[in-house]
Amino acid sequence: MTTAGYKSDFARHHEAVGEARGEARGEARTLLMILEVRKIEVPDDVRERISSCTDVGQLDVWARRAVTADRIGDLFG
């Protein structure tokens, strides 16, 4: 009998949490890059709000808004 490839529920849960965090970090990094390329100033508090957000759906909404935003406030409107 072999257990190769077996993962406990605990391990699967924590692996999924880690993957979600990594995905959110990538989305946040992309959003900040869009704002940088568009030359939209990002105050430190907003940068922290974006960087600490773990909701990938919310980050996606903000990234879509960033594409057409004229100022940082347009992201959150």
Structural notes for this entry:
This protein has 77 residues and is mostly helical. The protein has a domain of 37 residues. The protein is 64% helix and 0% strand. It is built from 3 helices and no strands. The protein is elongated, with a radius of gyration of 17 Å.
The gist of it:
By secondary structure, this protein is mainly alpha-helical.
Blueprint of the fold:
Elements: H1 9-37, H2 44-52, H3 56-66
Helix pairs in contact: 1-2, 1-3
Residue runs with pLDDT of under 50 for 5 or more positions: none
Shape: elongated
Residue share in helix: 55-70%
Number of helices: 3
Q: What's the order of the H and E elements?
A: HHH
Proportion of beta-strand residues = under 5%
Features:
single chain, 77 residues, mainly alpha
